[in-house]
Amino acid sequence: MTATITEHVVTDAAGGPYALTSGPDGALWITLVHGGRIARFVPGTEATAHELAPGSGPMIIAPGPDNALWFTQNRAHSIGRLTTDGDLTEYPLPTPDCGPFGIAAGPDGALWFTEMTGDRVGRISVDGKVTEYPLPMTGGMASAITAGRDDGMWFTLNQANAIGRVGMDGDITVHALPTEAAGPVGICAGPDGALWFVEIGAGQIGRITVDGTITEFPLPDRAARPHAITAHDGALWFTEWGANRVGTIDPSGAVTVHDLPTPGSEPHGIATGPDGALWTALETGALARIG
Q1: Cα–Cα distance, 59 to 221 (Å, whole number)
Q2: C-alpha angle with apex 111: 162 to 273, nearest 5 degrees?
Q3: In the chain, where are the structural domains located?
Q4: Half-sphere exposure of 251 toward its Cβ, with a 13 Å CA cutoff?
Q5: Pick from 122, 34, 39: which is nearest to 75 by CA?
Q6: CB under 8 Å to 98, separation ≥6 — which residues?
Q7: Percent of the chain with pLDDT over 70
Q8: CATH architecture of 5-290
Q9: pLDDT bracket for residue 266 (50, 70, 90)
Q10: Has 268 been annotated as catalytic?
Q11: How far apart are CA 41 and CA 63, in angstroms?
Q12: Mean pLDDT of the chain
């Protein structure tokens, strides 16, 4: 199957589109990690942007249960909340220099996030109350996080070479990966009830069941540097940051990859858009629509 891929410029190359999500207003919302902005884009119109503090490093963005967009500010060590009308609130985190990265809505009506350098995962209520839970190791580099179907939040531990789970009571379980130096980054809930993740260091896609059983699927190009992953139309789609491609893997492990039109476009985040198509953020300044 050959995918139809079209690119849409949303900023100059200095902006650095990193992650994206569908908002409750029918638009795509994008973090511009280098430009210190959050962009809003509706296909067929010009993107608009909301300014943040320079150097704040917005990374991952997710819709909240309150119809606002929530995002991590990795270098400002805070969580941001942005309404579709453009009202911005920022919540500094209690742990200094904690480097928040991943964020996702949980089953408890709050947002859960990871701290890359703080050795914690955290919870923030929609009114801004923060609770942090220490990890059972140091230097694990907690990265992406997602809600599982078991009422837990699952996250990658990039430097600990593991997948973690935190329950709503703050109890944390860690599952070591079979492959050394796999470097897990992106993670999502799959259509089969398991969690699927990418191993940027090993060039593999991983699957973990809620009881901790792990399966790994090597990619055709082990040097592709897979970065983010999302469920879409019954399969898992992922970005290959080092190979300028997007790929898909079905629950049986069959992989298909698709080249992006512009060389060196650096695909990062990937998500289903409000139009039902798949979109990926290209750090060089555009979004790619995969239809």
Answers
A1: 26
A2: 90
A3: 5-290
A4: 12
A5: 34
A6: 77, 115, 116, 117, 118, 120
A7: 100
A8: 7 Propeller (2.130)
A9: very high
A10: yes
A11: 15
A12: 97
Confidence of residue 264 (pLDDT cuts 50, 70, 90): very high
pTM reported for the whole predicted model: 0.97
- Please write the tens of the pLDDT for every residue from 128-152: 999 999 999 999 999 999 999 999 9
Cα–Cα nearest to 88, from 123, 53, 115 = 53
Would you say 7 is a known binding-site residue? no
Residue pLDDT, tens place only, 189-206: 999 999 999 999 999 999
Active-site choice (50, 77, 232, 268): 268
Give the per-residue pLDDT at 1. 59
- Binning pLDDT at 50, 70 and 90, where does residue 227 land? very high
Please check if 283 is assigned to a binding site: yes
Q: What is the chain written as a DSSP string?
A: -PPPEEEEE-S-TTT-EEEEEE-TTS-EEEEETTTTEEEEE-TTS--EEEE--TT--EEEEEE-TTSSEEEEETTTTEEEEE-TT--EEEEE-SSTT--EEEEEE-TTSSEEEEETTTTEEEEE-TT--EEEEE-SSSS--EEEEEE-TTS-EEEEETTTTEEEEE-TT--EEEEE-SSTT--EEEEEE-TTSSEEEEETTTTEEEEE-TT--EEEEE-SSTTS-EEEEEEETTEEEEEETTTTEEEEE-TT--EEEEE-SSTT--EEEEEE-TTSSEEEEETTTEEEEE-
**pLDDT at 25 > cutoff 70:** yes
266 annotated ligand binder: yes
Cα gap 6→20, rounded to integer Å: 16
What type of residue sits at position 289?
R
